[in-house]
Amino acid sequence: MIILGLILVVLGIFNCRGNISTIHWYNRRKVSEQDRPAYGKWMGAGTIVCGGGLIAGGIMRHFLPEHIWSIPLLAAIILGLAFMLYAQIKYNRGIF
């Protein structure tokens, strides 16, 4: 879980810096050239939040029972997906 979280954080950093080539082509095909930096920042932030949640969950699972550490993990994934959904709807003018 921690390794996957680290991979997501690194991909999110790439996206935040403007490299949106790691995002599926059909998810970025309607994004205009001027909206690419903002789109990358929102998608990157969502990816970083999801990755951070996985890292935190991977660490907490060694110290806390599952019903406790799974709540922040689920909250981080939902928040990260909400960021990505916002970016998709605003800049790609739809989910696909």
Write a concise keyword list for the protein shown above.
96 residues, mainly alpha, 4 helices
Short description:
Helices cover about 75% and strands about 0% of the residues. It has about 100 residues and is mainly α.
Order of helices and strands: HHHH
Mean pLDDT: 92
The Cα radius of gyration reads 14 Å
Structural classification: mainly alpha
- How many beta-strand elements? 0
Instruction: Give the number of domains.
Output: 1
**Oligomer, anyone?**
single chain
Outline the low-pLDDT stretches.
Answer: none
Number of helices: 4
Shape: elongated
Roughly how much helix do the residues carry, as a percent range? over 70%
The largest sheet, given as strand count, sense and whether it forms a barrel, is:
none
Classify the beta-strand content into a percent band.
under 5%
Instruction: Give the termini distance in whole angstroms.
Output: 28 Å
Question: What this model shows, in words?
Answer:
The chain is an all-alpha fold. The chain has one domain (2-18, 37-91). It has helices at 2-16, 25-28, 36-60, 66-91. The longest helix has 26 residues, at 66-91. The two termini are 28 Å apart.
List the helices and strands and how they pair.
Elements: H1 2-16, H2 25-28, H3 36-60, H4 66-91
